[in-house]
Design a protein that fits this description.
With 214 residues, this protein is α/β, with parallel strands linked by helices. The chain has one domain: Rossmann fold (3-Layer(aba) Sandwich). The protein is built from eight helices and five strands. The protein has a five-stranded parallel beta sheet, with helices on both faces. Helix 4 packs antiparallel against helix 5. The chain binds adenosine-5'-triphosphate (ATP) and magnesium ion. The site of adenosine-5'-triphosphate has 13 residues, from helix 1 and helix 8.
């Protein structure tokens, strides 16, 4: 193994399949004998879950755009310090259901806030510890809409289609800029196919137990 623990993030617009994949990969890795932890953003800590409730579900008071960014970034700063860094130190594989790129895609590209400033806020919050790989699961906005129809929408999911188009293009721009860590996946493939591709990519980083010489 190249380093002690390894960090992977899963990104994409709402409904692309992040949560489906992350738990599949977690099970695969556990079966292979790895220690694995999953966290969702915002959340993962007591402070983070409280902030999640506010930022996603409280619709009874306004949250201005810049405050929204800071709430997400605050949750992230707490998560990495309290959970992620210590787990990586112990050699655990950490899978994140959204991470720094979500703020850039949603608040930067989606809400037209300055992208470079959000990247700087992320750098500060996560102490520049970016994932080994970021799996961007790409689906069309129309496909996302049809997958999520019928589900109750949170504050962000209630936004218009154009917002999600901007986010998708934002992710594609990030994938191009940070091509060393981004893996773009066609999210309209069947879940099992995606799972195999992602697992192979994770094992390239953490090493395949069966292939290691003893
Ligand atoms: N590859 C796939 N093909 C078709 N449907 C899928 C695929 N992956 C997930 N789904 C379905 O799409 C819906 C959304 O999946 P999931 O909850 O994993 O997405 P998500 O990216 O975590 O969404 P959110 O951002 O809202 O948390 C679920 O009903 C899931 O069963
Ligand atoms: Mg999810």
């Amino acid at each position: 193994m190249k380093e002690k623990g390894s960090l992977f993030s899963f990104e994409g617009i709402d409904g692309c399949g992040k949560t489906t994949q992350i738990y599949g990969i977690r099970d695969d890795l556990l079966e292979l004998g790895y220690r694995v932890e999953v966290f969702r953003e915002p959340g993962g800590t007591a402070l983070g879950e409280e902030l999640r409730r506010i930022v996603l579900h409280r619709k009874d008071f306004p949250i201005c755009e810049r405050a929204e960014v800071l709430l997400y970034v605050t949750s992230r700063a707490q998560l990495v310090r309290e959970k992620v860094f210590p787990l990586l130190e112990q050699g655990t594989i950490v899978l994140l259901d959204r991470y720094a790129d979500s703020s850039v895609a949603y608040q930067g590209y989606g809400r037209h806030l300055p992208v470079e400033e959000i990247i700087r806020l992320n750098d500060f919050a996560i102490e520049k510890r970016y994932p080994c790989k970021t799996f961007f699961i790409d689906i069309s906005v129309e496909e996302a809409e049809s997958r999520l129809s019928g589900k109750e929408k949170d504050r962000l999911e209630g936004e218009e289609q154009e917002f999600f188009h901007r986010i998708r293009l934002g992710y594609l721009a990030l994938a191009k800029r940070f091509s060393d860590r981004f893996v773009i996946l066609d999210g309209e493939q069947p879940p099992d196919v995606l799972r195999k591709i992602i697992l192979r990519s994770v094992l390239e980083v953490v090493g395949h137990p069966k292939l290691e010489t003893r």
